[in-house]
Design brief:
The chain has 8 helices and 4 strands.
């Protein structure tokens, strides 16, 4: 008798030797993904820029001469030192703005990591489903081949009709075609997963325990709270909003004039006196008070504020869709386990008894077996739907860069 459930380990946490587990696949992908490495480097770059933007301007030192040739003398010869002193807390504010750029880079790194993880999880599930589907279709193929052979002998013995033989052969060929299609899908899924892991090929089977449904009773309020706390997309938007506030303060500080200083000391060739010079200057903000940049920064604050709301709305919609898919799969699985599985099993058992007593044809038995395994395939599809929904929740609803065909 064919099982309705796919063959999965009794303990979802255990993994056979040589079998690739989901957590191992995610770890390998994150280690080998060049986009993650590039995002990590971006964080380091932004951290170095924090140091750079908070540095004061370098002083200027040089040679100074005046009254050269006056009365045939060398005039006044000396050196000068000039230094611009930044006022208004501009350097500190530049550092604050840059610190927010660091935070944005860190959260974008997490978004990238979640993109990679989501991609690997979906590819892994695709491989696991195709792997289990092949097992079921191979079992059905063996049953159909035996049925075709048996019905052919019954036709030769005059105990069955030619139409029954043709139908059994047709079913066997249709399933063989589906089996061949699934084999191709399995190979494509394996290549996709291997690429995500940074490998050329994937030679080991994957752990089907990932398809085993776990008991869950999702509280939408708590799920929404968790998403708000863990979503890196929302963290990026919030950091951009925080940055825009500091950017406004930085632009407001721009009109505060910096102090331009210069000190000089010269030797007067005629009197041999030392002449000291001091210059202090500031830029008067009478023509440009930076109003345009200040207003633009304020507008950007509103833009980032609305962007935060947009991200929240998108996350909310994704959460509702994902939880809906999860609950739908749970409801259908409960129906299968509670009613359909029992009916399919009873139908198969009853048909087997009737066939043994000569009250049912072999074709009737074949149809009962086929209905039973088709229910197994439907169950496998629901496991896939549920596993995908759980993966979306585990990656804070960050989706893969390219979803598989079934998810588009």
């Amino acid at each position: 008798m064919l099982p309705v459930r796919p063959e999965v380990p009794a303990d979802p946490g255990s993994t056979e030797v040589g079998v690739l587990a989901m957590d191992q696949a995610v770890s390998l992908a994150l280690t080998n993904n060049p986009a993650v490495r590039a995002a990590e480097t971006s964080v380091i770059r932004q951290q170095h820029l924090v140091y750079q933007v908070t540095r004061s301007p370098n002083p200027t030192v040089g040679y100074l001469a005046s009254e050269v040739g006056n009365e045939g003398q060398a005039g006044q010869q000396g050196v000068f030192l000039s230094q611009n002193i930044i006022r208004g807390g501009k350097l500190c504010l530049d550092g604050q703005v840059q610190q927010r750029d660091v935070a944005i880079a860190v959260h974008e790194l997490q978004v990238r990591r979640f993109h990679v993880e989501a991609d690997v999880r979906l590819s892994f599930i695709e491989v696991a489903v195709a792997q289990e589907r092949l097992k079921l279709l191979n079992r059905l193929q063996r049953s159909l081949d035996r049925a075709a052979g048996t019905v052919k002998r019954l036709v030769s013995a005059g105990e069955s009709s030619l139409s029954a033989s043709l139908q059994s052969r047709l079913e066997a060929q249709r399933n063989a075609m589906q089996l061949h299609l699934t084999e191709n899908q399995f190979e494509v899924a394996r290549r996709k997963l291997a690429t995500a892991l940074g490998r050329d090929t994937l030679d080991q089977p994957v752990a089907a325990a990932v398809l085993m449904p776990q008991e869950s009773d999702i509280d939408m309020a708590q799920a929404w709270t968790d998403v708000l706390a863990t979503s890196p997309e929302l963290a990026v938007a919030a950091s951009q909003l925080d940055r825009s506030h500091y950017k406004v303060r930085r632009e407001q500080a721009e009109p505060v004039p910096d102090l331009q200083t210069q000190w000089s000391i010269q030797q007067d060739a005629a009197t041999h006196y030392a002449v000291v010079g001091i210059q202090l200057g500031v830029t008067l903000p009478v023509r440009n008070d930076n109003t345009g940049a200040i207003n633009a920064a304020r507008a950007d604050t509103w833009r980032t504020h609305h962007a935060v709301d947009a991200v929240k709305r998108s996350l909310r919609q994704r959460l509702l869709t994902t939880v809906g898919q999860l609950q739908q799969a749970d409801c259908q699985l409960q129906t299968i386990k509670g009613e359909l599985e029992a009916l399919a099993r009873e139908n198969l058992t009853t048909t087997q008894r009737a066939f043994a007593l000569g009250e049912a044809t072999y074709l009737d038995l074949l149809n009962a077996q086929r209905a039973y395994i088709r229910l197994s395939l439907d169950t496998l599809d629901l496991y896939q739907q549920r596993s995908i929904a759980e993966s979306h929740l585990q990656t804070a609803l960050v989706r893969a860069a390219e979803s598989p065909a079934g998810e588009r």
